[in-house]
Amino acid sequence: MSIHMQFTPWREFQAVKRPEVISAWLRGIAKASEQAFRAGASRAYPPASAPGAWPARRSGGLLGSIETEVTASSVTIGTNQRYSKFLREGTSRMARRKMSDNALKEGMFRARLGRWVEWQRL
């Protein structure tokens, strides 16, 4: 008695772009990123935030101005406060604090997307 086996390969795999799935995925990143930013920047002042930490909340202006924008292919998170640039980039007298780019990284991780997605600062 003999056994004969034959392997037939699968047909070619093709990925299909589904805009509604991509949009929902980006909205999930935006929501998780905004939550990360709000949670991080909600600690009351004093004391002042440490270098590399989330900024402490003094007036609530920064916390209240956090917004996200989702398009068909991108997520933007930020704030319109003029001093946010100094917090994000630091100054000659103050080290950088965590800001929107950190919130985006944390949001991607919280949304369990960080393994497949990378962010890019434009």
Overview in brief:
The protein has 122 residues and is mainly α. The chain has helices at residues 19-40, 61-64, 84-89, 100-110, and strands at 67-70, 75-78.
Mean pLDDT, all residues: 88
| Number of contiguous helices | 4
Percent strand? 5-15%
Q: Helix/strand/pairing class, anyone?
A: mainly alpha
Q: What distance separates the N and C termini?
A: 68 Å
Number of strands: 2
- Largest sheet, strands/sense/barrel: 2 strands, antiparallel
Morphology: elongated
How do the strands of the widest beta sheet line up side by side?
A: 1-2
Q: Evaluate the radius of gyration.
A: 22 Å
Low-confidence segments, given as residue ranges, are none
Q: Helical proportion?
A: 25-40%
> Order of helices and strands, N to C?
HHEEHH
Structural description of this entry:
With 122 residues, the chain is mainly alpha-helical. The protein is 35% helix and 7% strand. It contains 4 helices and 2 strands. Strands 1-2 form a two-stranded antiparallel sheet. Strand 1 and strand 2 (75-78) form a beta hairpin. Helix 1 (19-40) crosses helix 4. The protein is elongated and about 85 Å long. The chain starts with 18 loop residues before the first helix and ends in a 12-residue tail after the last helix.
What descriptive keywords fit this protein?
122 residues, elongated, mainly alpha, 35% helix
Layout of helices and strands, plus pairs?
Blueprint: H1 19-40, H2 61-64, E1 67-70, E2 75-78, H3 84-89, H4 100-110
Antiparallel strand pairs: 1-2
